[in-house]
């Protein structure tokens, strides 16, 4: 009988590590844990092996097409398909978070320019998610569940953007090429230093990437629906979780895993959520905030 398979990207620490741990206990199949290096992945798997769990280590850098292709080929040869894909790999620059709150940025963090932050954040969080999903889509089995990682903070962008850029956030006719073009334009406008006068937000690359990933899930669900294979994709917002990204402030990793685990285990033919942003089991929108959600502003105000 074919062995089922789950893949969690960026899982050598933080929420991704928690997701692998939880899936090893609850999912009826193998779980791949990925690290930026083979050694990172092997070390993280060794930690879980001490607890009697048996994740499968693999190297993955979502910025690198060859790395993604190697993982795809490994999955194809060893398993023949994929049942759960959680695109969890992501980065956030502390300098951007500090500037967004008007805090003084220490010299060693200030060395990274706004242009570099914009390009690198998009490269990992948005283009990395797109690259991995595109590579793995031919391997997705019927009833596969895909989870992209986003942040509810993305909905706050409407307050920070102007003119046609703010209007664009609310559009519902995005396609993958138009989303890529929009994101590329942002990167170029930050590099030229004209972004704020053109309506883009200041110090919000992470949130813009989160918005783009949320919309990517919407677009991808439409494509999956055409195949009639009951593949469901949603974007999970973990909520502020105590990991390296938040300087270890926020809820526990187990709590931060709840949204993605719920979406990864949606039953066959679930009618909803599909192509949505979900926190816990709550479907989020520009005008619908999850009850009790702690925002990063609230958490970091002291
Ligand atoms: N924590 C929160 O409050 C929060 C809130 C909303 C959304 N999120 C999102 O949740 C996801 C997990 O974040 P986290 O909080 O668990 O942070 P984390 O502990 O820093 O984990 C992020 C993981 O992604 C990996 N990664 C970074 N760049 C990568 C690349 N190019 N290719 C492959 N893997 C890469 C990191 O590798 P290294 O270990 O080598 O750095 C790390 O293992 C991210 O997408 C984040 O944006 C987090």
UniProtKB/TrEMBL annotation:
Coiled coil: none annotated. Keywords: NADP, Oxidoreductase. It comes from the Eukaryota. SUPFAM superfamilies: NAD(P)-binding Rossmann-fold domains. It holds the Pfam family adh_short. GO terms for molecular function: oxidoreductase activity. PANTHER family: CARBONYL REDUCTASE 1-RELATED, CHAIN DEHYDROGENASE FAMILY PROTEIN, PUTATIVE (AFU_ORTHOLOGUE AFUA_3G15350)-RELATED. Belongs to the short-chain dehydrogenases/reductases (SDR) family. This is Carbonyl reductase [NADPH] 1. The lineage of its organism: Eukaryota, Metazoa, Spiralia, Lophotrochozoa, Annelida.
